[in-house]
Design brief:
It is a single chain. This protein has 278 residues and is an all-alpha fold. It has two domains: 40 residues; 212 residues, MetI-like (MetI-like fold), CATH 1.10.3720.10. Helices cover 84% and strands 0% of the residues. The relative contact order is 0.11.
Length: 278
């Protein structure tokens, strides 16, 4: 019985000859994923070599091992999560407020050229002022709590999302709008069935920019004045020359930004799967 099965299998060809092309195709299709740990290892090795060769003290440039040890310490005692949770709340609030306002105002500006001519100069003028200059005013007006950081974060993400909303809504082909009118579609049906699907690719482009800027906005708000959050942790570690802790806070912010970006990218792939050619 075993011999018969083996004969039938080998009659189809050498298993190695069958698996090798499949493995090669998988490697070629996932080369970017496979390169990530390789590049990361190379960066860490170069970092370790620079520290060892130059002999930098820990307060100037700590080794990856010292940063990892510090990460384990602040993770175990709850310090990292306590500050990360506050920053995540500010990012979520700022994203929700800034993106919502940008979508509503952007849609109105895209549908009304007169409204755009009236409001665009003021919107552009408001964006010419750096958020760092506005942040102290927001802290004075709204206090040193989470609200002022949420507003700083919302201001940071508002303009890029607004521009992409206007471009996305105006990218709808006029012929398709005329077709919807000829079919006697209501405004809501035109919005849901035509304008939103047509604008989604551009909206997701703006959202990818917005989620990364949201992290920056939250940190800027915490830099100006805060007693908790990853921005505060950066300020604290800088003041006490605890450079390993500073690197831990930086890498946590990088991880948050990457996680948000990848989440938006996955959501884009899922919602726009109808665009992919099978």
């Amino acid at each position: 019985m075993t011999v018969d099965v083996r004969k039938r299998w080998w009659g189809r060809g050498d298993p190695r000859a069958v698996m090798q092309p499949l493995l090669q195709r998988w490697v070629m299709g996932n080369v970017e994923v496979l390169l990530v740990p390789v590049v990361l290892f190379a960066i860490l090795a170069l970092w370790e070599m620079v520290v060892r060769v130059a002999g930098y003290p820990s307060f100037i440039l700590p080794s990856p091992g010292r940063v990892w040890s510090k990460f384990l310490v602040v993770l175990a005692d709850g310090t990292l999560w306590r500050h990360t949770r506050v920053t995540l709340m500010e990012i979520a609030g700022g994203l929700g407020l800034g993106v919502s306002l940008a979508l509503v105002i952007g849609y109105g500006l895209a549908k009304s050229p007169l409204l755009e001519r009236l409001l665009s100069p003021y919107i552009v003028a408001s964006q010419s002022v750096p958020v760092v200059a506005i942040a102290p005013l927001l802290l004075i007006w709204f206090g040193f709590g989470v609200l002022s950081k949420v507003l700083v974060c919302a201001l940071t993400v508002f303009f890029p999302m607004l521009v992409n909303t206007i471009i996305g809504i105006r990218s709808v082909e006029p012929e398709l709008v005329s077709l919807m009118r000829s079919l006697r579609a209501t405004r809501w049906q035109t919005f849901v069935l035509l304008e939103v699907p047509a604008a989604l690719p551009i909206l997701f482009g703006g959202l990818k920019v917005a989620v990364t800027l949201a992290v920056i906005g939250a940190v800027v708000g915490e830099f100006v004045g805060a007693d908790r959050g990853l921005g505060f942790l950066l300020n604290l570690s800088r003041g006490i020359l605890d450079t390993p802790l500073l690197f831990v806070a930086l890498f946590t912010l990088i991880f948050i930004a990457l996680a948000l970006y990848l989440t938006v990218s996955w959501l884009e792939l899922w919602l726009l799967r109808w665009q992919r050619v099978e």
